[in-house]
């Protein structure tokens, strides 16, 4: 018998076998028999092959995480070969179950199954683990490897975004087939997750798991690999809570499968299968299966230690594992012909499942032609006709905050885009992120005086969980082509930055609505006033930051964001009212301001210089563009011709061709001024050697916004002075 840490006894070590070797391998006798599960010696051999492939791959590259992939091989094999409805020949099939490896460091847990099942990986791909250009990077990467649904790098993101997958499955069912009986719709499927101790220690998983229980997401099933080992070895050093009790408190259906319960280690796949069937049958709660494993099993000397978590076994230990499992220590990446022939049977089984699903889908399509047309359009990524006509037009000469304008735009677009849904992190009345007349996406029992719940509603309520909101939005857009958005104050983008970064890394079109976008939010003070946030968000490659100058820019910004599908966007909106500019229909000319439709270019000439030839160019975003326009008039009185350029999105402007960018910012005009109530860092490329920035390079204070702008120098007068200073510098 092993002690508390599972160390081998002297006699066991002397023989070169791990304790309990007779019953440790998956082909051990004495398992419970479940008629629904067919499992034979060839399945046992395939599981052992998966362990060896994981160990060999890490050994070859010299780094990686073999231990979890070894001990989770039976669970992963069970999911991929026996439980999940997937077609390896079509990893984008709409009817598939989704699999998310939240413990992304154990990438081989997934890669080996993708190889065995015929999803597109081959043995050479496993041999190329973690090397340049391979299909098998250190963590699974969305868009890089077929069969990978999401990039799961930072711990906690996978299980949190899986909640978004489950949200989306329910919402899409509501769009396309709301009347079908539970389990009878072609839009019914499960999301499966494998998570580890690290995932459940991260705070984001707590936020998202709480929401999953609240939402009663019976389509979400997570296996928690409770091996109690992390990089610092035994997790007792920092993690001793009762996870099962915590998840029960969240409203999850919790089961425990303990492969250590007898004192000997028995990988009881039948017990795990029973638990999975019970989880499938629990339709009113998400399910957590606490699977108690020994990391690195059956490594003779390194099992159950941090040493096998994140490093290669070493030649001696790897040879010992192979001997225990009956493999030749001299061979590497050994896969018996009968094993791969057996596991590649997943292709035929998957195609049969797909054909059966297709029959149901075709019957649904025939009975619901309008829903089928909606499905086809959403799948294509195209917006419906009539978007331009639906956009609100705001009257020039009025005053409207851009957050209020955004709320009106969402209401108008929501009426014609049924796949548009979203909400905020407990700030609906501040962010104005509700769709007028829509019900809330919650079980009806959670309806309140203010909100009417419906499982298929369109208004999302994340509570005060900004990080989970970002991760859930990512899961929603990865699941299908609906358009989801979530809002909070711009300052709290800091709380959701890891999920925002992952959206950009994956190039998925999540939409983040950030209001109260500057010190002009006022009296709440410096803790709530964003200073560096616009700059740091612009620093994320592939993230579009859009800061509209007035209400009509907001309308066209939303249209553009919804048309773009190749990366995420954040829209930054004002708390305070801003003037709505009186505009013309096209380009700026004379004293006529340009149409807000030019927002699509990222930057455009809003007001041409008097006479058409600028002496100085004034660039601004958001609430500060009004100061540039006012400065243009004052400079005109002094005989200085100023062009005003509105720059709602630096990223969109960077995409324009060189000729357009030169037409907006001619190189011949060296005198330039930027004005934005935040750091000036991202404006440097536009300003050149002689440009000047009107900005805020320090934290804010508690006062009304007009006082703050005056005291911090965000004024028309400051823009005028900066223009004169820039002109003087350019002339010297």
| Distance linking N and C termini | 86 Å
- Characterize the biggest β-sheet: 6 strands, parallel
Read across the widest sheet, the strand sequence of neighbours is 12-9-13-14-16-15
Number of strands: 22
Strand content: 5-15%
- Write down the Rg: 29 Å
Number of continuous helical runs: 29
> What kind of assembly state do the chains in view correspond to?
single chain
Overall spatial form: elongated
Q: Which structural class is indicated by helix and strand composition?
A: alpha/beta
- The residue fraction in helices comes out at 40-55%
List keywords for this structure.
disordered N terminus; 5-stranded parallel β-sheet; 6-stranded parallel β-sheet; about 725 residues; alpha/beta; single chain; elongated
What's the helix and strand layout?
Layout: H1 10-15, H2 21-24, H3 41-61, H4 66-71, H5 73-83, E1 98-101, H6 107-117, H7 123-127, H8 157-176, E2 191-196, H9 197-201, H10 203-215, E3 220-226, E4 229-230, E5 233-234, H11 243-250, E6 253-258, H12 269-281, E7 287-292, H13 315-325, H14 337-343, H15 345-367, H16 369-380, H17 387-390, E8 399-401, H18 402-414, E9 420-424, H19 428-432, E10 440-441, E11 453-454, E12 459-461, H20 466-479, E13 483-489, H21 493-506, E14 511-515, H22 533-538, E15 544-546, H23 551-563, E16 569-572, E17 577-579, E18 604-607, E19 616-620, H24 625-637, E20 642-646, H25 650-654, H26 658-664, E21 672-675, H27 684-687, E22 692-694, H28 705-712, H29 716-731
Parallel strand pairs: 1-2, 2-3, 3-7, 6-7, 9-12, 9-13, 10-11, 13-14, 14-16, 15-16, 19-20, 19-21, 21-22
Antiparallel strand pairs: 4-5, 8-17, 18-20
